[in-house]
Amino acid sequence: MPAPVTFRFDNSYARELPGFYVRWQPAAVPSPQLLFFNRELADELGLDAAALDGPEGAAVFAGNTVPEGAEPLAQAYAGHQFGGFSPQLGDGRALLLGEVIDRQGRRRDIAFKGSGRTPFSRGGDGKAAIGPMLREVLIGEAMHALGIPTTRALAVAATGEAVYRERPLPGAVLTRVAASHLRVGTFQFFAARNDLERLRQLADYAIARHDPDLAGTPDRYLALLRRVAERQAALIAQWMNVGFIHGVMNTDNMTISGETIDYGPCAFMEAFDPQAVFSSIDHGGRYAWGNQPLIARWNLARLAETLLPLIAEDDGEPAAARAVAHATEVIDAYPAWYAAALLEGQRAKLGLASAATGDEEADRALAEDWLKLLHGHGIDFTLAWRRLADAAEGNEQPLRALFDAPQDPDAWLARWRARCEAEDGASPAGGERAARMRRVNPWVIPRNHRVEEALAAATEDEDLEPFERLLAALRRPWEEVPGHERYAEPAPAALTAGYQTFCGT
If 0-12 CB within 10 Å is exposed, 13-18 middle and 19+ buried, where does residue 356 land? Predict the structure, then answer.
């Protein structure tokens, strides 16, 4: 029976791309219960939050009742996973319910995760546990509050049944909202099958959805590659500047839209270390913090490979060689786009308002040497940047207290003060610079031990209070809110040293 709530679906993927998916229904569950509902996001999507925040919403978000107008489907895609190519992956435990046009006129996907087996499940159960689904809420909402493009959680519903991993765990379904679920791996699926017609359909659909100004232009497929690369350069720079480690940067987890997707084995770094890895399955450190820009470029090269036949059609003769040359130019331009985005963010974090007053290489060296200083002394990444804002007001004691010896940052601080003075003729001791810095250097991030604490309480004790308190703090990352101090404190070093995250499958 259709649910009485209205979503006003307009399902372009189902309508325009037959053969790109398998129509499927979510599995029924015995006892749906709404654990989390994002009323702010529901309102943004134009949904009736009052109708969804209760038993009717629980039935919808657990998959027991399918809203009128929804067309549930499992999307097909391939992907490179830790460098090895899998020609068929697809939505093994996810379903795209449909699309809505939000209040700002943006098309948004609404999709389930953990809604049961599909034809792409490859022997998996298609289910999800409460802990990993609430992790998606915490990390996604934190990223949103930090201003980083991200998919977001609309709801999490408990299912009332057990999910079997290393041990039985309570099951749940996540409802995720995204600009789209188009991935590099979606293109790889059709390229691997030499299905040029569907590859062209997919590229034209991606352009219409994410870059409509390119539609019908002569070099649109090359331009699409460039747009995706530019978006990813900006996104990865933002990750790096908050210490975020995705953990599983496979090509099926890189979106065409430039949104962060899939918060499985992810984590925020504490003591700064470019080789930091927290994913239990990343044994070789492929997706370490410092490797993320390189992996993004590698993934983009895989996208470029899929688009070569279409770029060649644009190019005329000799098509193939010119297509490779043009695509290579985009991939080779990526490092400069990334470096510019990274430096722009670092300058803001350092309290430098204007690039025009500084030498680019000198500013880059200043930022790099700051990170070397943090690494050499094992300093907490987030607190170091935050306490640098205190130093901008003339209070250097909180920053110096992070080091074993208070004089350790002396030489670097002298360079930083000189750079600030060169910019505006004044010392960095001023409220305006400090205020700017506090708007880009968070006080609160999803500290790994606090995330685990909240998830354990929800899973083991059915206690959502720690989750809700942590979520409230993460939604105000810039403010030093009384009562939120525990969420700004680093974990004990021994705990961080052994910390691992898991994908939840």
Answer: exposed
